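Morning F.,

Quick status update on the modeling queue. The single chain you submitted on Monday has been processed. Sequence for confirmation:
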Amino acid sequence: MAKKVTPDSQVKINMSTPEKPKKKLGTIIKVLIAIIILLFIAVAGFALGVYLNLIDMKGMTEKWKLNEYPVVGQYFPQPKTNFETVELEEQSQVETPTEANLVPPAAVPNLSPAVPAIVDDSELQKQAKIKQQEEAKRISKLARLYGGMKPGEAVVILNQLDDPSVLAILNKMEDEQVSKILPLFSPERAAILTQAMLRGGNLN
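Structure tokens below.
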């Protein structure tokens, strides 16, 4: 016999059917929460292991080449090398010399300033005259300096100089100053200097 479906039984069937999807949805949410918690624990444990140096990040990076992955690679240390990286683009930009670019040495013009090979006698005489004037100025200045000193102090310094230098300085000094300084030299050196003065300043 076929079972008669009464309105009360139909209401019971309709009310019992929505409970099954709710139970399924609740179990799915519980599973997802459990997975999220497990992932969080795993990530926290991994981070703690890296922080405490229990996990070798360099070894893992070199082994699995984690630094080459597009997004995650920036968080892994780059492998260090013993040499500096060279950009190949810069090298390619440098032009290599070709036969067309090379210029033979003979074709290169001489850009050094022109120096006259022969100097005139008049030019040499001018240069010699300029040198003599500069030397005379220096000697006159030294003569003034020594003339301003006490004779004893001047002789102490002049005794350390050679005879031509002393003679050049004495010739530029006043006669009174020379007469005070000359006796303070040793007799032998005073005689040599006096003879040089008689010959016109030459010691030879």
